[in-house]
Amino acid sequence: MSTLAHSVKRSEFPDQDKLHGKPEAVQPAQVRPAGPEALEEESFKPLTRQEAAALRRANPSVSPWEVLAGQLAAGVVLALVAGLLNASYSVGWSALYGALAVVLPGALFARGLTSKVASMNPGAAVAGFFLWEMVKVGLTVAMLFAAPRWVPGLSWPAMLVGLVVTMKVVWLVLLLRARPKSYERKS
Prior knowledge:
With 187 residues, the chain is mainly alpha-helical. The protein has 8 helices and no strands.
């Protein structure tokens, strides 16, 4: 061994006994969050009933029906613009069909989630969410497969643009609808 290895004290490597088969008593450690988590934990105070009511008034929830109405409006506008720019009814109908392939399954999904059965208990709500999501996806896929039969002169690019734009306009609807108002908590 080198002289460097001999000069290292045994106490400098506390886990050395574990390597040689000598078990060491393990003490449970108290783990406290560090950084931002520690600050949040110490500064958390529950809201009073009045503060919670004021917060709900300042930040109202968005109805799924409002989101669907925004999606439908965007789909109709896109279909009109696509039909007029291309001077073709089939392009406009294709874009509208793509929008409807999002809106109709979404409406069925929203109806299923807002029913009384879905809000009975948390387990039913979770099961209902997954069930209606599967129905929504299945109906969307079925509508896409049926598109060549239902839309004469189907334009696949126009239909897919209608589908994608209608799906993505949700963020715009949410931004326009749910602008948070100022809320200050009384300390």
